Amino acid sequence: MYFTPRMIQLVADHYGYPPAIAMNVPVTRDEYDFIRSTQSYGRCHDFTLYIFKGNQVIVNAKHHYPKGLYRAPSGGLKPGEDFHEGVYREAYEETGCKIELQKYILQINAYFSCGKKSIPWRTHIFTAKYKSGKIKPVDIREIREAKLADLSEFDEYKKIIATMESGGLSYRARLHDEVLRFL
Fold first, then answer.
1. Cα angle 137, 129, 67; round to 5
2. Taking a C-beta distance cutoff of 8 angstroms, is the pair 110, 32 a contact?
3. Which site among 76, 173, 174, 175 is 20 to 30 Å from 161 CA-CA?
4. In the chain, what are the domains?
5. pLDDT per residue over 139-180, tens digit each?
6. In Å, how far are 57, 128, 131, 149, 156 from 54, measured between CA atoms?
7. What are the DSSP calls for 22-68, one per residue?
């Protein structure tokens, strides 16, 4: 785990103590294998950023997403990386923007399950404020596009997700529904 309990404590001391919600997330075999592949050195976390520029949020799309599907940017720390350095690095890579963290709003304790196998995962969700930069992904190998969106547009994203057989994207839709309760 790169985001250690001590780091989580320090972050919560600074940005607030979020409620924690547990979710079981059924995923396909391919998704399960993909999640396992992201767990080098024991990684079992991500942080998701709701970056506000005025009343809108910055969203992005990965290359394999169908047209019209976006989500809040997310990423993880590298082994030994400082929390703030990692968050600001990921935000910049996925959106092209510099940000300022505002509040730690939610912690999701997810269990990605496929048959009898399960992967524990923790998503830490923060609000942030856009500071500067052109909204355009820097890591174009991972991210196809970034843009501003109204929170209401997430309803359209959920409709697209509902047509797909992806537990991982369904997780992102469920995560967003929970986030709306705390914004």
1. 35
2. no
3. 76
4. 5-180 (3.90.79.10)
5. 999 999 999 999 999 999 999 999 999 999 999 999 999 999
6. 8, 11, 11, 11, 21
7. EEEEE--HHHHHHHHHT-GGG--EEEEEEEEETTEEEEEEETTSPTT
